[in-house]
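[recover] target loaded
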Protein backbone atom coordinates (compact mmCIF):
# COMPACT_ATOMS: atom_id res chain seq x y z
CA UNK A 1 0.00 0.00 0.00
CA UNK A 2 1.46 3.40 -0.94
CA UNK A 3 2.00 6.18 1.60
CA UNK A 4 -0.65 8.31 -0.13
CA UNK A 5 -3.24 5.53 0.11
CA UNK A 6 -2.34 5.18 3.78
CA UNK A 7 -2.84 8.88 4.42
CA UNK A 8 -6.23 8.76 2.69
CA UNK A 9 -7.30 6.11 5.19
CA UNK A 10 -6.07 8.33 8.03
CA UNK A 11 -8.01 11.33 6.76
CA UNK A 12 -11.23 9.39 6.18
CA UNK A 13 -11.29 7.61 9.53
CA UNK A 14 -13.54 9.61 11.86
CA UNK A 15 -12.44 8.14 15.19
CA UNK A 16 -10.48 4.94 15.67
CA UNK A 17 -9.50 3.94 19.17
CA UNK A 18 -6.72 1.45 19.73
CA UNK A 19 -4.31 2.35 22.55
CA UNK A 20 -5.13 3.62 26.02
CA UNK A 21 -3.75 4.11 29.48
CA UNK A 22 -5.27 2.04 32.28
CA UNK A 23 -4.27 2.80 35.89
CA UNK A 24 -2.80 -0.21 37.64
CA UNK A 25 -4.64 -1.07 40.87
CA UNK A 26 -1.37 -2.06 42.61
CA UNK A 27 0.02 1.47 42.30
CA UNK A 28 -3.22 3.42 42.59
CA UNK A 29 -3.98 5.19 45.90
CA UNK A 30 -6.76 3.63 47.94
CA UNK A 31 -10.22 4.71 46.81
CA UNK A 32 -11.59 7.66 48.73
CA UNK A 33 -8.20 8.69 50.14
CA UNK A 34 -7.19 11.19 47.50
CA UNK A 35 -7.43 14.95 48.17
CA UNK A 36 -10.10 16.65 46.07
CA UNK A 37 -9.73 19.73 43.91
CA UNK A 38 -11.65 22.71 45.23
CA UNK A 39 -14.52 23.97 43.05
CA UNK A 40 -14.47 27.78 42.99
CA UNK A 41 -17.04 28.27 40.24
CA UNK A 42 -19.51 26.39 38.05
CA UNK A 43 -21.32 27.96 35.10
CA UNK A 44 -23.76 26.48 32.59
CA UNK A 45 -24.04 27.43 28.95
CA UNK A 46 -27.62 28.16 27.89
CA UNK A 47 -28.96 25.17 25.99
CA UNK A 48 -28.88 25.73 22.25
CA UNK A 49 -29.45 23.13 19.56
CA UNK A 50 -26.73 24.44 17.24
CA UNK A 51 -23.99 24.74 19.89
CA UNK A 52 -21.37 21.98 20.08
CA UNK A 53 -18.52 22.92 22.41
CA UNK A 54 -15.17 21.34 21.44
CA UNK A 55 -12.48 23.25 23.39
CA UNK A 56 -11.83 26.04 25.87
CA UNK A 57 -8.93 28.18 27.11
CA UNK A 58 -8.46 30.94 29.65
CA UNK A 59 -8.96 34.41 28.15
CA UNK A 60 -8.61 36.71 31.17
CA UNK A 61 -9.15 36.95 34.89
CA UNK A 62 -12.88 36.30 34.60
CA UNK A 63 -13.37 35.02 31.06
CA UNK A 64 -12.68 32.00 28.84
CA UNK A 65 -12.48 31.31 25.13
CA UNK A 66 -15.05 28.76 23.96
CA UNK A 67 -14.63 26.98 20.61
CA UNK A 68 -17.74 25.71 18.85
CA UNK A 69 -17.58 22.93 16.26
CA UNK A 70 -19.10 25.08 13.52
CA UNK A 71 -19.85 28.43 15.16
CA UNK A 72 -16.33 29.80 15.70
CA UNK A 73 -14.69 31.04 18.91
CA UNK A 74 -16.11 33.46 21.47
CA UNK A 75 -14.84 35.00 24.68
CA UNK A 76 -17.39 34.44 27.45
CA UNK A 77 -17.60 35.98 30.92
CA UNK A 78 -17.52 33.60 33.89
CA UNK A 79 -20.93 34.59 35.16
CA UNK A 80 -24.46 33.17 35.12
CA UNK A 81 -25.29 32.13 31.56
CA UNK A 82 -21.69 32.69 30.39
CA UNK A 83 -22.57 35.89 28.49
CA UNK A 84 -20.58 36.48 25.33
CA UNK A 85 -18.09 39.35 25.47
CA UNK A 86 -16.84 39.25 21.88
CA UNK A 87 -16.28 36.99 18.90
CA UNK A 88 -12.64 36.20 18.21
CA UNK A 89 -13.12 33.74 15.32
CA UNK A 90 -16.03 33.54 12.86
CA UNK A 91 -17.85 30.31 11.96
CA UNK A 92 -15.57 27.58 10.65
CA UNK A 93 -16.65 27.84 7.02
CA UNK A 94 -15.74 31.54 6.93
CA UNK A 95 -12.09 30.78 7.69
CA UNK A 96 -11.96 27.84 5.26
CA UNK A 97 -12.46 24.95 7.70
CA UNK A 98 -15.29 22.38 7.57
CA UNK A 99 -15.36 22.40 11.39
CA UNK A 100 -13.13 23.51 14.27
CA UNK A 101 -11.53 20.82 16.41
CA UNK A 102 -8.43 22.57 17.77
CA UNK A 103 -7.88 26.08 19.13
CA UNK A 104 -4.94 28.00 20.58
CA UNK A 105 -4.78 31.71 21.43
CA UNK A 106 -1.86 33.80 22.69
CA UNK A 107 -1.15 37.51 23.01
CA UNK A 108 -0.02 37.48 19.35
CA UNK A 109 -2.05 34.90 17.43
CA UNK A 110 -5.29 32.98 17.25
CA UNK A 111 -5.16 29.56 15.57
CA UNK A 112 -7.99 27.14 14.76
CA UNK A 113 -7.62 23.83 12.95
CA UNK A 114 -9.23 20.62 11.76
CA UNK A 115 -7.15 17.60 10.70
CA UNK A 116 -4.22 19.39 9.01
CA UNK A 117 -6.11 22.48 7.86
CA UNK A 118 -4.88 25.44 9.92
CA UNK A 119 -6.34 28.96 9.94
CA UNK A 120 -4.63 31.78 11.81
CA UNK A 121 -4.42 35.53 12.15
CA UNK A 122 -2.89 38.15 14.46
CA UNK A 123 -4.92 38.86 17.58
CA UNK A 124 -4.53 42.60 17.00
CA UNK A 125 -6.27 42.45 13.63
CA UNK A 126 -5.57 41.56 10.04
CA UNK A 127 -6.98 38.86 7.81
CA UNK A 128 -7.13 35.10 8.23
CA UNK A 129 -4.60 32.88 6.50
CA UNK A 130 -5.30 29.25 5.64
CA UNK A 131 -2.96 26.31 5.21
CA UNK A 132 -4.63 23.37 3.47
CA UNK A 133 -2.66 20.15 3.53
CA UNK A 134 -3.36 16.43 3.86
CA UNK A 135 -2.07 15.54 7.28
CA UNK A 136 -3.41 14.85 10.76
CA UNK A 137 -3.19 17.18 13.76
CA UNK A 138 -4.32 15.84 17.11
CA UNK A 139 -3.48 18.91 19.16
CA UNK A 140 -1.61 22.20 18.86
CA UNK A 141 -0.42 25.06 21.03
CA UNK A 142 1.36 28.36 20.50
CA UNK A 143 3.90 30.53 22.33
CA UNK A 144 5.12 33.67 20.68
CA UNK A 145 5.46 32.82 16.99
CA UNK A 146 6.07 29.12 17.68
CA UNK A 147 3.36 26.64 16.77
CA UNK A 148 3.86 23.06 17.98
CA UNK A 149 1.63 20.22 16.80
CA UNK A 150 1.08 16.58 17.73
CA UNK A 151 0.54 14.48 14.60
CA UNK A 152 2.05 15.46 11.26
CA UNK A 153 1.52 18.56 9.13
CA UNK A 154 1.40 16.94 5.67
CA UNK A 155 2.62 13.86 3.85
CA UNK A 156 5.48 15.60 2.03
CA UNK A 157 6.87 16.91 5.33
CA UNK A 158 6.35 13.54 7.00
CA UNK A 159 8.38 11.79 4.30
CA UNK A 160 11.41 13.89 5.34
CA UNK A 161 11.25 12.37 8.82
CA UNK A 162 9.14 9.17 8.86
CA UNK A 163 7.89 8.59 12.38
CA UNK A 164 7.77 12.29 13.24
CA UNK A 165 4.87 13.03 15.58
CA UNK A 166 5.85 16.36 17.24
CA UNK A 167 6.63 19.27 14.92
CA UNK A 168 7.36 22.99 15.27
CA UNK A 169 6.82 25.85 12.83
CA UNK A 170 6.78 29.67 12.78
CA UNK A 171 3.47 31.49 12.39
CA UNK A 172 5.17 34.75 11.42
CA UNK A 173 6.78 32.96 8.46
CA UNK A 174 3.55 31.43 7.24
CA UNK A 175 4.12 27.84 8.44
CA UNK A 176 6.28 27.25 5.35
CA UNK A 177 8.83 25.07 7.14
CA UNK A 178 8.44 22.40 9.83
CA UNK A 179 11.11 21.01 12.18
CA UNK A 180 10.56 17.55 13.63
CA UNK A 181 11.08 17.46 17.40
CA UNK A 182 10.23 13.83 18.15
CA UNK A 183 10.15 10.66 16.08
CA UNK A 184 8.41 7.41 17.03
CA UNK A 185 9.62 3.99 15.87
CA UNK A 186 6.04 2.71 16.13
CA UNK A 187 4.77 5.41 13.79
CA UNK A 188 7.72 4.99 11.39
CA UNK A 189 6.78 1.32 11.10
CA UNK A 190 3.08 2.03 10.53
CA UNK A 191 1.74 5.53 9.97
CA UNK A 192 -1.77 4.29 10.70
CA UNK A 193 -1.08 4.26 14.44
CA UNK A 194 -1.25 8.06 14.35
CA UNK A 195 -5.03 7.81 13.99
CA UNK A 196 -5.55 5.35 16.84
CA UNK A 197 -6.23 7.93 19.55
CA UNK A 198 -6.96 10.81 17.23
CA UNK A 199 -9.51 12.40 19.56
CA UNK A 200 -7.38 12.11 22.71
CA UNK A 201 -3.77 13.21 22.13
CA UNK A 202 -2.83 16.37 24.05
CA UNK A 203 -0.10 19.03 24.01
CA UNK A 204 0.47 22.20 26.03
CA UNK A 205 3.19 24.81 26.55
CA UNK A 206 4.33 25.01 30.18
CA UNK A 207 4.52 28.11 32.35
CA UNK A 208 8.20 27.60 33.12
CA UNK A 209 9.21 26.98 29.50
CA UNK A 210 9.03 24.00 27.20
CA UNK A 211 5.92 21.92 26.65
CA UNK A 212 4.36 18.57 27.55
CA UNK A 213 2.80 15.96 25.23
CA UNK A 214 0.60 12.93 25.94
CA UNK A 215 0.32 11.25 22.49
CA UNK A 216 -1.81 8.27 23.64
CA UNK A 217 -1.21 6.49 20.32
CA UNK A 218 2.32 5.81 21.62
CA UNK A 219 2.78 5.20 25.35
CA UNK A 220 3.95 7.64 27.98
CA UNK A 221 4.03 11.39 28.58
CA UNK A 222 6.89 13.54 27.23
CA UNK A 223 8.25 16.83 28.55
CA UNK A 224 10.26 18.98 26.14
CA UNK A 225 12.70 21.78 26.93
CA UNK A 226 12.38 25.28 25.43
CA UNK A 227 14.83 24.21 22.72
CA UNK A 228 12.57 21.32 21.68
CA UNK A 229 14.64 18.48 23.17
CA UNK A 230 13.04 15.72 25.22
CA UNK A 231 13.78 16.63 28.84
CA UNK A 232 11.77 14.03 30.73
CA UNK A 233 9.57 11.02 30.01
CA UNK A 234 7.01 9.31 32.20
CA UNK A 235 6.42 5.72 31.16
CA UNK A 236 3.04 4.01 31.64
CA UNK A 237 4.58 2.10 34.57
CA UNK A 238 5.72 5.36 36.21
CA UNK A 239 2.24 6.77 35.67
CA UNK A 240 0.82 3.74 37.44
CA UNK A 241 -0.65 2.47 34.20
CA UNK A 242 -0.35 -0.26 31.60
CA UNK A 243 -0.75 0.06 27.86
CA UNK A 244 -3.28 -2.19 26.19
CA UNK A 245 -4.09 -2.45 22.52
CA UNK A 246 -7.73 -2.43 21.52
CA UNK A 247 -8.71 -3.02 17.90
CA UNK A 248 -12.47 -3.40 18.04
CA UNK A 249 -14.25 -5.84 15.78
CA UNK A 250 -12.79 -4.63 12.48
CA UNK A 251 -9.70 -6.45 11.24
CA UNK A 252 -9.73 -5.45 7.57
CA UNK A 253 -7.78 -2.48 6.25
CA UNK A 254 -10.73 -0.84 4.52
CA UNK A 255 -13.19 -0.88 7.42
CA UNK A 256 -13.60 1.82 10.05
CA UNK A 257 -14.17 1.05 13.67
CA UNK A 258 -17.83 2.11 14.11
CA UNK A 259 -18.75 4.80 16.61
CA UNK A 260 -20.69 2.27 18.66
CA UNK A 261 -17.32 0.67 19.46
CA UNK A 262 -16.18 4.02 20.84
CA UNK A 263 -18.83 3.64 23.52
CA UNK A 264 -17.67 0.11 24.30
CA UNK A 265 -14.08 1.30 24.50
CA UNK A 266 -14.86 4.23 26.80
CA UNK A 267 -16.81 2.05 29.21
CA UNK A 268 -13.88 -0.38 29.48
CA UNK A 269 -10.69 1.70 29.23
CA UNK A 270 -9.09 4.58 31.10
CA UNK A 271 -7.62 7.42 29.07
CA UNK A 272 -5.48 10.53 29.45
CA UNK A 273 -8.00 13.18 28.46
CA UNK A 274 -5.80 16.28 28.52
CA UNK A 275 -2.55 17.80 29.76
CA UNK A 276 -2.43 21.02 31.77
CA UNK A 277 0.31 23.55 32.53
CA UNK A 278 0.10 24.19 36.28
CA UNK A 279 2.45 26.34 38.37
CA UNK A 280 3.49 23.12 40.09
CA UNK A 281 4.42 21.51 36.77
CA UNK A 282 2.76 19.51 34.00
CA UNK A 283 -0.41 17.63 34.90
CA UNK A 284 -2.60 14.99 33.27
CA UNK A 285 -6.36 14.57 33.43
CA UNK A 286 -7.20 10.86 33.65
CA UNK A 287 -10.62 9.43 32.90
CA UNK A 288 -11.62 6.17 34.63
CA UNK A 289 -14.92 4.49 33.71
CA UNK A 290 -17.07 3.21 36.55
CA UNK A 291 -20.00 1.39 34.95
CA UNK A 292 -22.31 4.04 33.52
CA UNK A 293 -20.41 6.80 35.31
CA UNK A 294 -16.90 8.21 35.16
CA UNK A 295 -14.30 9.17 37.73
CA UNK A 296 -11.69 11.81 36.89
CA UNK A 297 -8.30 12.30 38.51
CA UNK A 298 -5.62 14.97 38.14
CA UNK A 299 -2.00 13.86 38.32
CA UNK A 300 0.68 16.53 38.84
CA UNK A 301 3.80 15.03 37.28
CA UNK A 302 7.19 15.01 38.95
CA UNK A 303 9.60 12.61 40.62
CA UNK A 304 6.51 11.51 42.56
CA UNK A 305 3.07 12.00 41.01
CA UNK A 306 0.54 13.83 43.18
CA UNK A 307 -3.02 12.63 42.55
CA UNK A 308 -6.27 14.52 43.16
CA UNK A 309 -9.92 13.73 42.63
CA UNK A 310 -11.68 16.03 40.13
CA UNK A 311 -15.26 16.69 41.32
CA UNK A 312 -16.92 17.29 37.96
CA UNK A 313 -20.33 16.07 39.09
CA UNK A 314 -22.75 14.61 36.60
CA UNK A 315 -21.35 14.78 33.06
CA UNK A 316 -21.92 12.73 29.94
CA UNK A 317 -19.79 9.62 30.37
CA UNK A 318 -19.00 9.70 26.65
CA UNK A 319 -17.82 13.32 26.60
CA UNK A 320 -14.20 14.49 26.43
CA UNK A 321 -12.89 16.42 29.46
CA UNK A 322 -10.83 19.35 28.22
CA UNK A 323 -9.23 22.15 30.18
CA UNK A 324 -6.67 24.86 30.75
CA UNK A 325 -4.79 26.43 33.67
CA UNK A 326 -3.86 30.06 34.28
CA UNK A 327 -0.86 31.60 36.00
CA UNK A 328 -2.80 31.92 39.26
CA UNK A 329 -3.28 28.16 39.50
CA UNK A 330 -6.93 28.08 38.49
CA UNK A 331 -8.05 25.16 36.34
CA UNK A 332 -11.01 25.44 33.99
CA UNK A 333 -12.61 22.22 32.70
CA UNK A 334 -15.52 21.32 30.45
CA UNK A 335 -16.91 18.04 29.15
CA UNK A 336 -16.90 18.78 25.41
CA UNK A 337 -18.03 16.84 22.36
CA UNK A 338 -15.88 13.78 21.62
CA UNK A 339 -17.91 12.56 18.63
CA UNK A 340 -21.34 13.28 17.12
CA UNK A 341 -22.79 10.57 19.35
CA UNK A 342 -20.90 11.81 22.43
CA UNK A 343 -21.90 15.43 23.15
CA UNK A 344 -20.61 17.46 26.06
CA UNK A 345 -22.53 18.67 29.11
CA UNK A 346 -22.42 22.48 28.82
CA UNK A 347 -20.99 23.03 32.33
CA UNK A 348 -17.81 25.11 32.77
CA UNK A 349 -16.07 24.31 36.07
CA UNK A 350 -13.31 26.35 37.72
CA UNK A 351 -11.13 24.50 40.26
CA UNK A 352 -7.97 24.92 42.34
CA UNK A 353 -5.60 22.58 44.12
CA UNK A 354 -6.61 22.18 47.78
Amino acid sequence: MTMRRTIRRVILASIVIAVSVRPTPATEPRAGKLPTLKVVGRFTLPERADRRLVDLRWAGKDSVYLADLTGGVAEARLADGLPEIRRVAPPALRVGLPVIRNMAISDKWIVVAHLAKIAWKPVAGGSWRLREKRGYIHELDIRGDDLVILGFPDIETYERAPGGIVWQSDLSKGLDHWDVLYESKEVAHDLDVVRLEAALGSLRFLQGGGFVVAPNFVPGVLRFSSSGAVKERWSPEELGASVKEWQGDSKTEAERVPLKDLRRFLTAQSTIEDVLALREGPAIVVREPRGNQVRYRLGVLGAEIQWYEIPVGEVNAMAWLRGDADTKGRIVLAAVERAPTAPGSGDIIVLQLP
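[recover] notes: Confidence is low (pLDDT under 50) at residues 1-30, 241-257.
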